[in-house]
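Most newcomers find our protein records easier to grasp once they have seen one. The structure tokens are whole numbers drawn from a learned vocabulary of backbone shapes. The record below serves as our worked example for the rest of this section.
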Amino acid sequence: MTKPGKTKVDLGQVMKRIGELSPLLDGIGPNFSANNVPSLEGEKFVDASGKLMTKLQRVREQISPVRFGSIGITLGRSDSIAKFFAFSFVNQDKRELDELMDTPFYGSGVYSIYYHGKAERAYLPLSGSETPIYVGKADPKNSYAETVEDQGQALYYRLKEHAKNIAKTDLKLSDFRYRAAAIQSGMQSAVEDFMIRLFHPIWNKEVKICYGIGKHGDLATTRANKRSPWDTMHPGRKWAAATIEDQMKRAEIEANIAAHFRQNPIIPDKEMLFKLLSLR
């Protein structure tokens, strides 16, 4: 019997609708690209599908004969802790990447690199904004380190490596800034993951656009590997120059970057960033 004030749900009809929808989604696999989806259409889908998933989850939990729910606290993907970190992380001032060599420091954790130049046309939308061009992590020397000294200089050496790679190209190192923060050993992966999902940085391999800055070089026996998009955009590393073929041509990379910025709007300032963080 339906309780007063409650609407009876026809589960058979709901199941039929789910059955009709499921085949339409089967073609959307892990290699699906959203670059060709109109921005407004994509935003509407994300909003509508999110609301639908919330409703389905609520009904599923109510109907199930065995009570269950989502995991409230996790360590592998702890967005609540990562968000707290992100608030404090982005509140610090950016530092000049070309001055890094003069200021070594201890600590492992997460860092981000920002473009502030005008020379690279493809990156102009990023220039001076709060959207990093790259986000990374540096693991501690000692996995159980409880002090920055025990963690070693992991962050410093990782940023130093990136600075050296940038300096080998026609990019100006003075056009780049960075933020870096030591965090509790073991939390760096969860925080890095959150930051990548928040910012979608175009140099990160997860975004699949202009990846490759983190590559350490191919051996002579593996020169058949195709050149990374980053090395195509920014030639200068000798081992990359010896590679025979590009994974993507520069024009394709630039087109993908432009499409990415349309799909993932740049965060222009801290005010907008803090607003975005509070809504997540």
